[in-house]
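Hi V.,

You were right to ask for the full record rather than a summary. Here it is.
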Amino acid sequence: MTRLPGPADPRSMRERMLAGDLDVADDPQSGEASAVALDLAAAYDATSARQRPLRRQLLEQLLGAVGEGTEIRPPLSVDHGTDIRIGARCFAGFGPVALDVAAITIGDDVQIGPNVQLLTPAHPVEPGPRRDEWEAAQPITIGDNVRLGGGAIVLPGVTTGADTVVGAGAVVTRDLPAGVVAVGNPARVVRTLEDT
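Predicted structure:
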């Protein structure tokens, strides 16, 4: 359960949000970190496929960690970038959106279709706190060898088990176990996968 910070809460806005507590996203340090990330993402998006070394350098500056052999097709949209860790041999198609107000952890050998959204921000549904711009965040974890189909959306706090396939356009609202196929809105398991 999220809670409002007290007047004597010594944590920064970012620390409170990473802990899952509600806060107003108006911290100047967080705003500066986001501006740096937007500049790096714009530079990344402006590169061509022939500029692999530059792309890799920009990606390493932008993200918290990026494994060997991982490729992300621009345009890439992030909040801070530094709270995203992506493993080795991953591929993300055009237009991934990874809003890393909380940590996003992506395992090895993950395939991400075009226009996939990984959304860690969580907003209250009550009108008053929403009007006052309160928000929180919950981490997302994508296991090894997961396939996220084009246009899939993964919501705050979700963990996807290894070897799982999420169908195109699915909206993942809760954790998925390892080795399943999940489709729909909300995503539901329709099949268990056998290791071959």
